[in-house]
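Hi there. Long-time user, first ticket. I'm pasting a complex I've been working with (about 627 residues overall). I'd like to know whether the download I got is complete or cut off, because the file seemed smaller than I expected. Thanks.
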Amino acid sequence: MSMAEAVSTKRTFPAGGEVIRCQDVHKWYGEFHVLRNINLSVQKGERIVICGPSGSGKSTLIRCLNRLEEHQKGNIVVDGIELTGNLKNIELVRREVGMVFQHFNLFPHLTVLENCTLAPIWVRKKPKAEAEELAMKYLNRVRIAEQAHKYPGQLSGGQQQRVAIARSLCMNPKVMLFDEPTSALDPEMVKEVLDVMIGLAEDGMTMLCVTHEMGFAKSVADRVIFMDRGEIVEQNTPNEFFNSPQSDRTKLFLSQILNH
Amino acid sequence: MTENVHTGSIPDERPPSNTVGPIAWLRNNLFNSWYNALLTILIFYGLARAIPPLLDWLIFHANAIGTTPQECRANGGACWTFVSEKLRFILFGTFPYEQQWRPLVTIAIIIALVLVSCDRRFWKPWLGLAWVLGIAAVAILMWGGVFGLSYVENTLWGGLPLTLMLSVIGLSVAFPASILLALGRRSQLPAIRVVSVTYIELIRGVPLISLLFMASVMFPLFLPTGVNIDKLLRAQIAFIMFAAAYMAEAIRGGLQAIPKGQYEAADALGLNYWQAMRKIILPQALAISIPPLVNTFISFFKDTSLVIIIGLYDLLGTAKAALSDPAWRGFYREAYLFIGVIYWVFCFSMSKYSQKLERDLRRGHRR
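Hi, the file is complete. Here it is re-exported in full:
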């Protein structure tokens, strides 16, 4: 599939139903104020790209959405559950929220297949055979099924990242979070991972992607969020965002990343 | 100069003859510099001086089994009669002579359990049951008092079964305890962390010998009169406490080597703490910890010989006791060589097995 086709399937309005809501969220690392007054509502089926200079808090923001990081003020509600110190609630949210990391974080001591079946078996309590069937379905979908019995260390970066996506999908998540999924890849492997992500977007997965791939943002995103120094500076449709940015900070950022 | 472009492929050639073969090996490994050449010559000279007399004592001038101590002393070679004469005492201690098949079966059971546990294909739940049954069988065999077996007090136990029981039971209890301690030391809950750190640092800070003394001499002082906890049990507990603290630190090293991303990936998939530990973190951390863990295993196997100071006769203790027989005084070389070989066989097997396990677990993993 090409990016052009992806554009054609793009929704013009959200499909409805709020999956994530952040209200007045703040976070500090010690004295350092990393997230300031974040207000964000994500509808079911929405594809959101979050960009911004490094250190702007974009990774921290999505890591707060499954409580890998704790926010200290405001509230975050995911899939109807508020994220607080309650461990049971956190586990419930994490079941419904998949995450793909910059460095893949596959489990090196397990095969590709075992990586994919682990959580369905232990968290969703699926029988092994069913979990394996599901895993093969998603490994097929990311076009890596033939590597199912290899260990992650035997795969290339792009292949590992596709396995990581399949591993998340095996939990049938309602939302997928991508934390710079292509930043650690060699250039020739970026496309295979982006293609998988585009496929997911076309199938209507709710996605929040922190990425520097502006081509992906232009063709796939319903909404682009620009963050700087811990705040959401601007959010708009990709068209508006790239063609008529409102704030000076956005203009500066875009001029820096688009004109090498 | 022609340019380095070939139209056809370059055929395979043999390497230059001075880089392969035995001559090259000798030159690369033994004589690659003047000081290595000197060391090689010195070492060969030393071996040439030491080995013939050693072989002479061990084999050529050795006294065949059946000679009397007097003949042995006159002849001067190794006296293997001493070992054969004292074999059962060294191996089984003061266990009633005609009942010594019982400690022999005990040794067989313990070794069989350990061997079965070494094979990863058998790492199934029934293995735990096999251990429970095995230990129960060992207890019945050693104590007796049921099934028509005569009762044998554990003060009469000694030799190899005692060494094996102290180390194998000790290590198999200490190992899970040490995992909990290592996890406790890294826990987010301050109370658990403080307890674990205090325990580990306290136990590691005292010598094993003093812990054994405390277990045998001081501990009974705190018990009400009439209550008496078995001396062997006290020694066993002291060992477990000590081994657990040491192994916990070896495992902590492994835990610290696991990248943060592994914890995050486990969390993000919705695994709870124990699932993440059991399925993701510990399998990797323990594999990393094998070398220091086996180091601890080996040193604790040998450290069981310290129980001699509180009056228990393990393998070393019975060998020493055998030497105190007036008729056989002075054959300490044979005695220590014999038990030295037994200790070495066990320790070397542990070391070899751990290397195999490391290789197996590393297969296919990320570098």
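A couple of notes from our side: Chain B has a mean pLDDT of 84. Residues 78-92+159-360 of chain B form a domain with the MetI-like fold fold (CATH 1.10.3720.10).
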